[in-house]
């Protein structure tokens, strides 16, 4: 999960935005409690979306308290009053996914940058083992899916569908675990699959120019035969269509969920947030030199 699945604030009511902020800060708080203050740095919007979905399925109202942000004491934040199984799941999932993200970054980097990611992998290794012991089923499925994805990517003939399938299946399993109800579980599996596919393809689009330069794997290169950054703009429309179709499938699954306390937030993310993020990536592809860095500049910090 990479931080692409976010709200579209202009279309969100103030009260819903404040509730979303509350979940965001609650996941951050839970990461700190379960894995130490350093774990708070891996917080991203995808984790908040996972927690919002879980709270929506749970269908119970949420009470929030106010406090000071640990990273910005001058700023007040909201967080859930009590320990919450959903935010705990989100925190554990973050740690399970981090291991493979760091490995992927190390494989795609060189020199000191590669060393940096390897050092981070060692630093977080004990925390990953803790998360794996707490969520053994999820850890096993994610590991198997990542291994399958690596095999597909190394085949040098991966299509867009085959490349995105493994990541999508991993997220489908995680979302399915948010409910014991069989009907809800099937819907959540489908929602998780579509969002997981969308995130993989959005990240591949965002990294296309860099992957071409470093000769790293990218599914669009194999699918469309792109061999230079100058061709990215030519194919950006077709790539955006793929993202729109995938987001549409996610919206269809989202509509099947029974409306709960976070229904407006969830639909804002699926209907407006994904579209806005896809547009941002497409705009970046048109002006590659002005491509915005994700993370520090893109809001990966407490709201």
Outline the structure in words:
- The chain has 303 residues and is mostly helical.
- It has a two-stranded antiparallel sheet with strand order 1-2.
- 67% of the residues lie in helices and 3% in strands.
- The longest helix is centred in the middle third of the chain and has 25 residues, at 182-206.
Task: Give me some keywords for this one.
Farnesyl Diphosphate Synthase; 303 residues; two-stranded antiparallel sheet; mainly alpha; 67% helix
Short description:
With 303 residues, the protein is mainly alpha-helical. It is 67% helix and 3% strand.
Distance N to C terminus: 19 Å
From the alpha carbons, calculate the radius of gyration and give it in angstroms: 19 Å
Helix/strand order: HHEEHHHHHHHHH
Pairing-aware structural class of the strands and helices? mainly alpha
Task: Give the topology.
Elements: H1 14-35, H2 45-58, E1 64-68, E2 76-80, H3 85-107, H4 111-134, H5 136-154, H6 160-176, H7 182-206, H8 208-214, H9 219-224, H10 232-254, H11 263-286
Antiparallel strand pairs: 1-2
Helix pairs in contact: 1-2, 1-3, 2-3, 2-11, 3-4, 3-5, 4-5, 5-6, 6-7, 7-10, 10-11
